[in-house]
Amino acid sequence: MQIIEITCAKNNPFWPSLHNCASLSGPSGHWTRDELVTLIQSKTASVFITVNGRRSDLAVFPQGSITLVRSHANGVWNDDLLALPQCQPKG
Fold first, then answer.
1. Cα 71-40-68 angle, rounded to 5 deg
2. C-alpha–C-alpha distance, residues 9 and 32, integer Å
3. Total structural domains within the chain
4. Is 89 a member of any domain?
5. How far is CA 58 from the centre of its chain?
6. Range of the structural domain that residue 54 is part of
7. Is the four-CA dihedral 69, 33, 43, 67 of positive or negative sign?
8. pTM reported for the whole predicted model
């Protein structure tokens, strides 16, 4: 199983909430929300973030007609994903 750490996110410009981020990045790459949803649902990757020294796993979270990625720790959904910095363009 692939282990993916996410360190920054890019908002969806049409719905500016990190719960509906357009893409996420980390030391090993860059993924769209849909790509991460597929990896998580297929159980081919474990995706996590670290905020204030606390690890939160990312999981699929259905929200109406779309599927979001949301963080959780110890079986409880949390907003740690909101604490990630915005990804900066490479320059």
1. 50
2. 10
3. 1
4. no
5. 6
6. 2-82
7. positive
8. 0.85
C-alpha separations of 52 from 8, 26, 45 in Å: 14, 17, 23
32 vs 19: CA distance, rounded Å: 13
State both tokens at 10: 């890019």
38 in a domain, yes or no? yes
Do the domain assignments include residue 11?
yes
Which DSSP category does 87 fall into? P
Residue 19: C-alpha distances to residues 1, 45, 79, 90, 91 (Å)? 24, 19, 8, 23, 26
Spatial distance between the Cα atoms of 69 and 73, rounded to a whole number of angstroms? 14
Q: Note the pLDDT tens digit of each residue in 52-74.
A: 999 999 999 887 887 888 899 99
Q: Does 88 reside within a domain?
A: no
- Rounded distance, CA 73 to CA 56, Å? 5
